[in-house]
Amino acid sequence: MKNYRSIHKSVPFSFVINKSEFIGNCKFVESEEEALDFVDSIKTKYSDATHNCCAYIIGEDKLIQRFDDDGEPSQTAGIPILEVIKKEDLTNVCVVVTRYYGGIKLGAGGLIRAYTKASSECLNESVIVDKKIFRNFQIEFDYTNVGSIENFLMNNDIYVADKQYSEKVVFDILLDEDKYEEIENKLIDLTSDNIKFTMIEFTYQSSLNGKLIF
């Protein structure tokens, strides 16, 4: 696992040029099957469109890269969309640009600019984020340390997913993997080593300007 950039949510973008309407849609995907399903869903939604062109990049190492001109002149649609994804340094994202032909030909240059704009604006509207590796773990401690630990977690912007109060207090925490060792040592010092850490799983979380977003 390693950190990468992708999108957080899907927001369409549309505009009209020389009577042709272009509609950009994008989605976070984690497999080629998910990407193809998304392309099919857009083709179904805009089944009366002239073209539904697409591109996607998948994998932490960006090993899967595909594009489709869907009937537009070669290299005027799919590749421009793919190049936008590359320029933004994104992966695990699929972009589909729908075109309703308005009767006026745009030429190769015009098509490239239109598909580039539709995909670029769609991605920007969808919020580009860092997909960072987080460690989901539990900390177990005595009631005497509740106040100091809650203040510490709040002051360090550490997300607490769940709190359980029984014989001891148990918090489920999400923490940036890069900060885990530092925070663990500080919690040990804070509680005089009267704290237990239990690993649950590693997970990807969306981060924007250093803050978790859900």
TrEMBL record:
Domain UPF0029, chain residue ranges per copy: 139-193
Alphabetized SUPFAM superfamilies for the sequence: EF-G C-terminal domain-like, Ribosomal protein S5 domain 2-like
Alphabetized PROSITE patterns for the sequence: UPF0029
Domain of life (superkingdom): Bacteria
Gene3D superfamilies for the chain: 3.30.70.240, Impact, N-terminal domain (3.30.230.30)
Impact N-terminal domain ranges (all copies): 19-123
Cellular component, GO annotation: cytoplasm
Similarity annotation: Belongs to the IMPACT family.
Record protein name field: IMPACT family member YigZ
Organism: Finegoldia magna (Peptostreptococcus magnus)
Lineage: Bacteria, Bacillati, Bacillota, Tissierellia, Tissierellales
